[in-house]
Every structure is written in C-alpha cells, then in structure tokens.
Amino acid sequence: MPLIVLAAGAALSAPVPASAGAEGGPRMPSVPGKVPGEPSRPRNPCRSKDHPEIAERLGARIRAALAGRAGTVSVAVADHGRGLRCALAADRRYDSASVVKATVLGALLRRAADEHRAPTAAERSLAHAMITRSDNRAASTLWRSLGRERLARFAERAGMSRTVLGPGGYWGLTQITAHDQLELLARFTRHNDLLPDRARAYALRLLREVVPAQGWGTPAGCPHGVTAHVKNGWLPRHGRFWRVHSIGAFEGPGRSYTIVVLTRDTPSMAYGVTTIERVARAVHRTLNPGMRAAIGDDAAGAAPGGVPAASDGSVPPGR
C-alpha cells in the first residue's frame, strides 16, 4: 500500500523568548504549513489514501496537542496498515542526545550480519546497557568500535539522508530529523534487506526492556494489548534550554505504527516531556479508538517516575 508523505516546514509553536535550541514511501519537500489560498487554515500534516478521515482527525489532534506550546517541535508518524503518514517539520535537524543510541544499535547489528555471525557476548552486554539503561560508556565504546565510516554507511542504507554524525566522539551531537528516525524505526519493525529478522527481533526486545524510569514519552497513552518500544534523549544545551526527544514503535493485533517527537528550546525537561506526551496521547487515541490506555494515561504529561531534570550525559557539560 503506498504511503504519501507531507512534510510541513513551519514551526508549530511560538518560540521561547530570547531571554528564556519509515521504510519506503515517497518524500515531498518541506512546504509551509498553510493551504495555498487559505492562509488562515493550516495544512493537515497527515495523509492516507485509504483512510482520509482518520488522517484528518489525527492531524487535527496533533495540532491541538501542540497549540500554545513553547519551543520547536517536529513530529513524524507512520501507520503501516492504514498507509498513513504524518509529518510536521520532519526534515528539521536536532541534536540527537541519547536517541542516537538506537542508530548505534542498528549499525552494530548490521556489522554482525556483514560478518555472518551473531553479536558477541561483549557486544550484547554493551548493547543491553546502552539501550535499556541509556549507558553512555557503553555507547561510547560501541561508537569507537564501529567507526564513523560504518555508522555513516548504515545511516545511508537505512534512508537517513539528513542525519549527520556528531564530531569526533560527541555522538550526542549527531544531527537527526524526525523523518530519518521514522526510517530507522521502520528497519526495526518491518522486514527489510538491511537488518535480518533475528536482528530486528533482538533490537525490539531491547527497546521493549527500557527501564521504567526511562519509559516516558511516546508510550504515554499506549493502550492495553499494544506493546511499546521506546528510546528517549534529554539534553540541556548551554546550561539553559533543553532538547527532549522520544521515538517509539508500537505493535499489537492488527496494529503496527511508529511515533517520533523531537523538541528543542523548551524551558525545562518536564516541559519537553509534556509536549511529547500530549502528541503521543493524541496519536494512540486516534489509531486505537475504543481501547483504554494502559501507559501513562493519568500522568498529565509530567516528568514521570522521579526522573531527574538532569542531562542524559550524551554531551559533556559546556558543549
């Protein structure tokens, strides 16, 4: 079923004052978020040839979830069964923070496939720590082991055309886009030539086993019977503004969809989490009508589980 993509290039929300930074489917260039000739009506960010009503409803709910939010936000959603995709500023680049660890995992699994072997015990130990606990030492070790050439080649083969690796060992400064993260998640969730099915299953298991304290973000509002896989990143830059990101894949009976929400220049970590979870609830509610939410339904978007409002450590202080 063909997927139709619309990428909106305009920022969704008011900026913070200066006193306060899928597999397949055709791509269209970023366009202003207005319908030509109707300047007062924003363009619907979601498209589906076979389910236009759902696309219309989802686009309206995403925009409503972001109404009045400070900072800069990009959103990408893909529902493979419905042939539905949403994109808001999906080609805008962001500092990746710890979200890039999912890319490192993909490159690690591709290297093992290239060498016709399973990941070693040491690689599995590092990957488990890097994904489930967001361990930075494990990420740095794998970043160095894989090397920039292999990481860049994996990103290129995964369709992550606008991703730029961070300088030197600063993997948390890798530049990512919502579109590219959606492409990465597609490599984990759908059969493809880049990652063998066994490798994909292993990656999804790690993303499913992220510790509860880091399970906020796109899983918020996920309904009973749908399995959530998530990787988050949270990073203050210059000691003031935050980058808070969440990428998630969701699978259940007759359901398979992915959500990416990237934010920057939010006044606090909790504020960024709230923004992400408002979008996530809108997506889960629309794609799972009549199903009761099982994850984070009563959290009202607050930073959950006692997560401290401190950097994820993906970039040294002062960078």
Task: Give the helix/strand layout.
Layout: E1 34-35, E2 38-42, E3 46-48, H1 52-66, E4 72-79, E5 84-88, E6 94-95, H2 101-114, H3 121-132, H4 136-157, E7 175-176, H5 178-189, H6 197-208, E8 227-237, E9 241-252, E10 255-266, H7 269-287
Antiparallel strand pairs: 1-2, 3-5, 4-5, 4-10, 6-7, 8-9, 9-10
Helix pairs in contact: 1-7, 2-3, 2-4, 3-4
Tell me what you see in this structure.
This protein is α+β, with helices and mostly antiparallel strands. The protein has one domain: DD-peptidase/beta-lactamase superfamily (Beta-lactamase, 3-Layer(aba) Sandwich). Helix content is 33%, strand content 19%. It has 7 helices and 10 strands. The strands form 3 sheets. Strands 3-5-4-10-9-8 form a 6-stranded antiparallel β-sheet, with helices on both faces. Strands 1-2 form a two-stranded antiparallel ribbon. The chain has a two-stranded antiparallel ribbon with strand order 6-7. β1 and β2 form a beta hairpin. It is globular and about 50 Å long. It starts with 33 loop residues before the first strand and ends in a 32-residue tail after the last helix. The N terminus is likely disordered.
Keywords, separated by commas or semicolons:
319 residues; alpha+beta; Beta-lactamase; six-stranded antiparallel beta sheet; two-stranded antiparallel ribbon
Summarize the structure.
The protein is α+β, with helices and mostly antiparallel strands and 319 residues long. The protein is built from seven helices and ten strands. The protein has a single domain (34-287), classed as DD-peptidase/beta-lactamase superfamily (Beta-lactamase), CATH 3.40.710.
